[in-house]
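Database export, one record per block. Field names are fixed; values are copied verbatim from the stored entry.
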Amino acid sequence: MDPELEAFLALFPKADLTDPVEERKNFAALAAAIPVPAVDGLDVEDRTVPATPDVPVRIYRPQGARAAIVWCHGGGFVMGDLDTEHPWATRIAEGAGVTVVSVGYRLAPENPFPAAIDDAYAVLKWTAAHADELGIDADRIAIGGHSAGAGISAAIALRARDEAGPAPCFQLLNQPGLDDRQDTPSARAFTDTPWMNRDKVTASWRHYLGGVPATPYAAPARATDLSNLPPAYVATAEFCPNRDEGLGYAMRLLAAGVPVELHQWAGTFHGSQAILSAEVSQRQLAELADVLRRATSAYREVPA
């Protein structure tokens, strides 16, 4: 493990999702300790997207942004909200120079699948329909997120393709949770890794699925057809149960003809980019923003 990360292991809470309500409090406390960068000219606004039920969003608009990303927070499908994602959404908006539409999707187990993907997909459709109001180009809307949010984003890409919905220009998948089956080497081996381990992943999927068999929209790794999906960036952490499903999904996207940039971060664990003082974390966060900036700028109109 990266020595700068290893020094913080004793401070990380036990990986557990036995009591989702209690863990939400712990997750919120951890997020509250993460500094939020001050960004000149960044307009931040809370809105509500009409749906059934309505979906809360927080919109981050850098000056001059013409591209956007519909952003889904992490938290194992059961934790997280607009406030816990605030430090990261701010960094994405600042670093990539894009409008970030952060989604406050409903959480399991109270709202199991498909509640979260219904919410996120409704926000994607709303963002595309309100592109002029948001000051963005409708063909430069990406989707992405961390962990469970990355898995939800991958599912949105599948659903938008299948339902001929708004076509995202890019998918940014950071340490995605994609497969409920947990039959990869990393999912089997990592039973005592920090923050995320096999038991916690098992509990996460149990809460999310609510006893219903998984479909490709719940667990995108189950999808048999990955063709005609948006170009993707996939990042994985070495000591993470999700590692191999992320690597496998990236390779299957490539085999299906989808352009993919893949980065396996050596010496890291799931969520370790939250340790901002570590050099590897700084590189991870900078790369996420840089990849998104380059991907969305590729969709600028060329002057006649």
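Remark 1: Residues 300-304 have pLDDT under 50 and may be disordered.
Remark 2: The chain has one domain: 3-297.
End of record.
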